[in-house]
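Aggregate trends can hide what the representation actually does to any particular protein. In the encoding step, the backbone of a single protein was reduced to a row of integers, each denoting a local shape. The record that follows shows the chain in one-letter code together with its fold in token form.

***
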Amino acid sequence: MDKFISKSITIVIIGLIILGFLFFFSSQLMYIFAKVEEQETGIQFRGGQISNIVGPGIYSDFGLFVEMKRISRQGVSFSVTDPEINIPMTKLWMKWCQVLLNRR
């Protein structure tokens, strides 16, 4: 009876160690159901190299050193005011700069 219990405990410990290694290395071997939102662009990497650029959707990939990174496509808007310059063209200039920044 004692041999059975010790074998069972040994098997459980070995199983947990194997699961730990699989969990640790699985992040480098795959991604499953990686979601790219509507306002994002996804970049798929294989071995540190860009393999594909994808739009919104759900993606999965298996292989060595695969990775999905998401980049936002939303523009960053900001405004800057200078109290020393108070002319009507300032507002027009700021609006034009804001439009240019949103285009990028």
